[in-house]
Sequence to fold (426 residues):
Amino acid sequence: MQNQISRKDWTLIWVLGMAGQICWNIENSWFNTFVYDKIAKDPSIISWMVGITAIVSTLTTFIIGTWSDRIGRRKPFIAIGFICWGIFTIAFGATEFLPKDPLIVAIVFIVAADAVMSFFGSTGYDAGYNPWTTDISNPSNRGKLGGAFAAMPVLATIFGAVVSGIIVDRFDFFPFFIVMGTIVSLVGVLTLFTLNDHPNLKARKNKHGYWHQFAEVFNIKTVLENKELFWVFIINCVYFIGFNVYFPYITIYLNNYLNMSYSVSGALQGIGLVAAIFLTIPVAKSINKGKTTPIILFAVIANIIGLLLIATSSNLVILLIGIFGAGVGYVLMIQTITAWVKNLFPEQQRGQFEGVKMVFAVCLPMVIGPLISNIVINRYGIHMVIDGVSGMVPNESLFLVSAVITLFTLLPLIPANKYTKARITH
Fold:
């Protein structure tokens, strides 16, 4: 019988996962809103932040993931990463007090603070926590694990939208960053006393040294030996390019274009997303049986319908249904992809392959998506003066463009399905 995940490890999966996802949610949503409100209403600043931090996160996961494979340890990277992640979340909030003249100085400090925070976030979460969850799981429970991974960002989004919205409305941004950063650092301290590496995790040292081992994953032979895995990576990439076209700006859209308060927009996103989580329970069994293609197909269709509804109405009920549809697509995509890639990762290169996954799931989508957003907002957005400051605000066109891009996710699904069928039948 295959080993099951212990209750203690499940608790740590949820505590670490939720702390990490809340922190990512703050970066991906509230950092953008913070910059818009406190620094300048310029979407190009957000594009720079998102793009640079995506590159930093990916390189960090490669470097630290290879290091963790070499020494056969995940715990120190998880603990140090989370502790420093929280500290630099607070430091980012302190950029509010930087002088705005000249503006370029404030922008440089903001982007740099975000990049440093992302370095420690990727050290703790992507290069440490993610491969640790692969180490302690197996194909019989990865559908359930994928469900947890899918639910956590939704719960974090709900927390980020509802609770964070209330805190920001009442106390402003800096106290909010202090509270959230402190929580993440305390979770890092907790792991020092509670988390253990899996006993079967062994050090894997390439005799030619660290950098030779680091470069192994870039060999074309690696791609050819893992064809199914790389097609799944491409599915992930295309979907999240579409996702990153609209997601960094959805709160800005609701607040500035539809004139909602942070509390109302937060409640709207929270209520719309929460129901999507319950789909992860029945879907987990299908994922464990290898029925990944129909789930991805359904996720893409639900996501597109949701985006079209958001784009075509300002009615609260229709917006709620639209956010639910987009949430269903998001939840099922993450759940399915998480289990799918964990079953395909080479056993001795799990940390390193988290870096490869980051290229397709984070780096490319978070560079390409916001670049597209920047073009769409500047060309088709609405010019507004908010609190005496002139700027461009996103409108419905952002969601329509995202829906079109998301549709292309179905193309790499065809070869991925072919290789999956061949693997299962063998």
